[in-house]
Request: fold
Amino acid sequence: MMKKAAVMIVLGIVAGCGKQGAAPQALSADDIAYQKTLQEQFLDAKPGSVIEIPAGKHPLDRVLTLRANGVTIRGAGSQKSILSFKNEISGPEGMLVYANDFTIEHLAIEDTKGDGLKINDGENITIRDVRVEWTGGPKTTNGAYGIYPVNVTITAIPVGGPPSGPPGGPPSGPPGGPPGFPVASEAAGAARGRRESQV
Reply:
């Protein structure tokens, strides 16, 4: 049984800086159609809804916002189902969640302009096998945080994949919790140049 722990945390990993990224490219007709479908699923979600992200790399250019409780977002694996925000023009987050009883699992979020996944004021949050990465390496244009839970109650964050603590340092975790769940300060995250985070 996993112990429920209320945490107010900021996730981030400090890295170096770099030059400005390339200008966003227009999405293809297929990408636009998938983005519209996905946005409708987020907007129409109700308690008990499961939003499936199929395997593949899915370019998006707008933030995905969820405001319904009791929703699960599920991919086919953090190396298989990839939401790419490299061409994001509206955001800045990749995914923005205002919900309780929320689960996100088995997917990746890449190259957001701001935070990869931001969760606000939620209870009973489960994050499992989620990878957030800026694929171009450390740059000042990278988003501020990979996963940014703000005033949330974390029910379970099973640790899997490589440790995601600060570069060159040991994995870190909340007091009394498992290692591999990185915690950083606002000042550290403000450096805005980060490598991969995975939980």
